[in-house]
């Protein structure tokens, strides 16, 4: 693999950082130890500026090139947070915290971006500036959005942003990417159907919310099958059905339904929200009850920009000899917020034949480090070639 030789030399050091982070997982915005470690390393590398506390526990580092005639600034982003999962890998560096685990490989992402920062600080073989972005709370907390809301893009005049995620099932160090929508918007709904509870032996005296909710669950399936254009992607999943009474002989007063919606475009997202409201109030009215629908918008769809995606794929080909066209992912990714503010691209790097992300036996593959770090470094050196 024509990876940068320096990363073959640095691999064992970067692996040590990765395993240290793995052993000490932190969830959501609670990445205090990890953020401190990142800031300390960036200082050790000789970064020109290090700022902590962006997006609560996020860290930003600036590395200036040998020259800056281009005036360009590129942002490289990694996520630092772990998941509330109890680790079952049995590794000697497994999580020391019960119920917390790096099950999505953000330990690897952080270590790889630190490796790239070390190399870029040593060599500075580019014309412009690099901003390394370490964000907390990717797993549902919107840490990327908070960093943007703190004015990060304007403060450092970031013009393009790049992100990377490891991908189990893909050969180690192989890359995959696609232009346009890539990861889904992740929304939630919380519906309360209200009826009139009573004795289960006297249904004529009740408005039965269980029957009403069952109809609503079935009718919600028609958003994907009857309302959406068949060529568009949408998932509507009801994941929780809770009656207000658990008794055998009581018709419950209310039923709460919860679930998730995944879409790839603003149009589908709007359609889902509109139809969930219409279906629930319509079904409730049919049975003489009422519906209260809360639709919570989470991460927007993550959309890769055309030009930067092509460039990112070219760099990946140079690093690993290949870059496949990736399939759509119905999971969410809060790098979406950064790509809404600036053009850029997000790439997948193979993690080999490992357990899937978010599984208690998952582990980041340290063999992917040279490819991942090389991709980061080449993005910078090729996008802002030394004058
Ligand atoms: Zn994840
Ligand atoms: Zn992840």
From TrEMBL:
Cofactors demanded by this protein: Mn(2+)
GO biological process: diaminopimelate biosynthetic process
SUPFAM superfamilies tied to this protein: Bacterial exopeptidase dimerisation domain (SSF55031), Zn-dependent exopeptidases (SSF53187)
InterPro entries: Amidohydrolase, Bact_exopeptidase_dim_dom, Peptidase_M20, Peptidase_M20_dimer
GO MF term (any one): metal ion binding
Ranges for domain Peptidase M20 dimerisation: 189-281
Keyword Hydrolase applies: yes
Keywords: Hydrolase, Manganese, Metal-binding
Pfam families the UniProt entry points to: M20_dimer (PF07687), Peptidase_M20 (PF01546)
Gene3D superfamilies per UniProt: 3.30.70.360, Zn peptidases
Cofactor remark from the record: The Mn(2+) ion enhances activity.
Binding site for Mn(2+): 104, 106, 139, 165, 358
Xref: NCBIfam families: amidohydrolases (TIGR01891)
Protein name, UniProt field: Amidohydrolase
Organism: Parasedimentitalea huanghaiensis
């Amino acid at each position: 693999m024509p990876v940068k030789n320096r990363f073959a030399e640095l691999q064992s050091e970067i692996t040590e950082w990765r395993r240290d982070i793995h052993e000490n997982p932190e969830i959501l915005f609670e990445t205090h130890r990890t953020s401190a470690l990142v800031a300390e390393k960036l200082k050790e590398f000789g970064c020109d500026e290090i700022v902590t506390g962006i997006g609560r526990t996020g860290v930003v580092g600036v590395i200036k090139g040998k020259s800056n005639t281009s005036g360009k600034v590129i942002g490289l982003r990694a996520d630092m947070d772990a998941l509330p999962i109890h680790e079952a890998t049995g590794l000697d560096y497994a999580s020391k915290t019960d119920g917390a685990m790096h099950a999505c490989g953000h330990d690897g992402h952080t270590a790889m971006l630190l490796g790239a920062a070390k190399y870029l600080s040593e060599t500075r073989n580019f014309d412009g500036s690099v901003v390394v972005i370490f964000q907390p709370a990717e797993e549902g907390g919107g840490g990327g959005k908070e960093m943007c809301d703190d004015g990060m893009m304007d403060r450092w005049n970031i013009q393009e942003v790049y992100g990377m995620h490891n991908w189990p099932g893909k050969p180690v160090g192989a890359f995959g990417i696609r232009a346009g929508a890539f990861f889904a918007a992740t929304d939630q709904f919380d519906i309360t159907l209200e009826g009139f509870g009573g004795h289960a032996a006297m249904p004529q005296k009740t408005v039965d919310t269980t029957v009403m909710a069952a109809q609503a669950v079935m009718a919600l399936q028609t958003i994907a099958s009857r309302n959406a254009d068949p060529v568009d992607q949408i998932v509507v999943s009801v994941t929780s059905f809770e009656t207000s009474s658990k008794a055998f002989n009581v018709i419950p007063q209310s039923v709460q339904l919860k679930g998730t919606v995944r879409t790839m475009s603003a149009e589908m997202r709007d359609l889902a929200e509109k139809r969930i409201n219409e279906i629930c109030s319509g079904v409730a009215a049919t049975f003489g009850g009422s519906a209260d629908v809360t639709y919570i918008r989470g991460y927007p769809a993550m959309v890769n920009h055309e030009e930067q995606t092509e460039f990112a794929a070219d760099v990946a080909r140079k690093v690993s000899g290949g870059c496949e066209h990736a399939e759509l992912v119905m999971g969410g990714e809060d790098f979406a917020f950064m790509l809404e503010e600036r053009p850029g691209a997000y790439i997948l790097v193979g993690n080999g034949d490992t357990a899937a992300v978010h599984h208690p036996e998952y582990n980041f593959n340290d063999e992917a480090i040279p490819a991942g770090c090389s991709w980061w470094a080449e993005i910078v050196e090729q996008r802002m070639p030394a004058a």
